[in-house]
């Protein structure tokens, strides 16, 4: 459901839930950082691609995350990124600023898997020739994924992949409804502190 067509009370409740979940995971990460010495700052660059648009090209995007050890075998992460993609032959540019919280199980120190939640602020910029007003939505989404950390002394190379589930979105261009789910693969440098 598009946030612009959602009942105002439901839109407010959904936003509160998404922000609350991200804040809860962030609080866990901060609390874990105070207790544990296993904290990392991870700037990353990656590739993202829409799952349901066979004509879409993979796009480069960037992000920043903080990850910390909560318990042996469990890490918490809070992150933010910027991604964009063209749709409908360039008639629509979709720009997105996700803020996510994740919990990662670490069965081995170099491997992790898990998932999390996020708040996805998305702007739809239509080509000026179409005379369609740009719009912005805010959605709650979930993701599943995993990764590998290759130690490099006081840092590590971090290879991460995830699939993001967002649900149906609406557009002023045909098709009126589309599924904005996407996958990402990132390479980051985990700087331990």
Can you give me a brief rundown of this structure?
This protein is mainly beta. It has one helix at residues 8-35; strands spanning 39-50, 59-71, 74-87, 92-108, 111-126, 135-152, 155-165, 169-170, 177-178, 182-192.
Average pLDDT across residues?
83
- Supply the CATH architecture: Beta Barrel
Question: What general outline do the C-alpha atoms trace?
Answer: globular
Q: What oligomeric assembly is this protein in?
A: single chain
Uncertain spans: 32-36
Largest sheet: 8 strands, antiparallel, barrel
CATH topology: Porin
Q: What key phrases describe this protein's structure?
A:
193 residues; mainly beta; Porin; 8-stranded antiparallel β-barrel; two-stranded antiparallel sheet; 1 helix; 15% helix; 60% strand; globular
